[in-house]
Structure formats: C-alpha cells, structure tokens
Amino acid sequence: MSNTVPDPETQLAMIGEISAAFSAEGIEHWLFGGWGLDFLAGKITRPHDDIDFFIWDGDFDKALTVLSPLGYEFRPEASAEFINESGFVRKDGYYVELARLVRTPDGSIATPGRYLDWPWPTRSFEGPPLSFRGITVPGWDAYGHWHIKMGFSRHGSKDPLREQDISDIEILKSLTGDLSGLPEFN
C-alpha cells in the first residue's frame, strides 16, 4: 500500500504519536496486524506496508480530526469500496488503517460491512497494553491475531493464506503454542 520504502523507525514513531493523540482525546484504539504482532513478539518480524489500528466506528470522524493537525491526511480512495469498514490516513507516504468497530445487538464486537457476521474475540480488546522499544500502546492479543489469520481466508478475502500469513502463524505458535486446533479456528 505504501509508496515509500518502509522505515520501521518512522513507523514506530507514528504508532507512538497516533496512540498518544488518541489517548489524549479519549479515543479507544488497539494496534493490530503486522505491527501488533511485532509488539507481541518483541521484535520487528518483517517490513510493513501500513500500520493498523482498530477504533470504534463512532470515533472515526473524531480520529480524523485529531490526526489532521499532526499531518495525517484522510485518503478515502484507499478504501473507497469499503469505507464503512475502514479508512486510511497517510503521512509522509506512510499509510495507517483505521479499522472500524461496532457492537452488534448481541453485544459482540465486529467490523461493519462484509465482516459483521464474523465477531472479533472480545477478550482480545481487554488485555494489557503492548510495549516495544519504549512505546506502549493498547493492542490486540495473540488470540485475536490467531482469529484473523485462521479465519480471514474463510470470512474475509476468501484468498488462500499469503506467505506472510504463514510466517505470522509460526510466530504466533512460538508465542502461544498451536491454537489452530481450537474449534473457533476450524
């Protein structure tokens, strides 16, 4: 997604900047995806094209307002087809995904749109903050990352797992043991 060669130090600084800005304004957020996995693993596992945060759908416009003075520009064309699911901001050539969350009528947490019938594990939003290289942010736990990796090819894109997904699963196994046998991952 990024048209810039990923610089992990710049991206780490952006993670800290965004999290601090959201926290100051009361915007709940959770780091997930590649950088979320890196924070869990305590190391940079691969280059990342973007940074992923979950936020509540009702905070989306406020998040854009908070990020704008920091130099983040809303890029609706980056997710135009699925803008009700997530939106992207860009700063200095780096993209940040703001994935939207809603509560369903039964109290589950899900992403609106195509994924509304695939709830996220509530426990993954309740864990302790993640810390890496002096940056501490609210983040998704390993169980939630398993949920995405094992289910996205069935609930999301329907594409087979990518090489990076297979690699991420191996990292998750090293952190948690093999969870793929749990009923929710089959």
From TrEMBL:
InterPro entries for this protein: Aminoglyc_AdlTrfase, NT_sf
One Pfam family of this chain: Aminoglyc_resit
Protein name in UniProt: Lincosamide nucleotidyltransferase A/C/D/E
Lineage: Bacteria, Pseudomonadati, Pseudomonadota, Alphaproteobacteria, Hyphomicrobiales
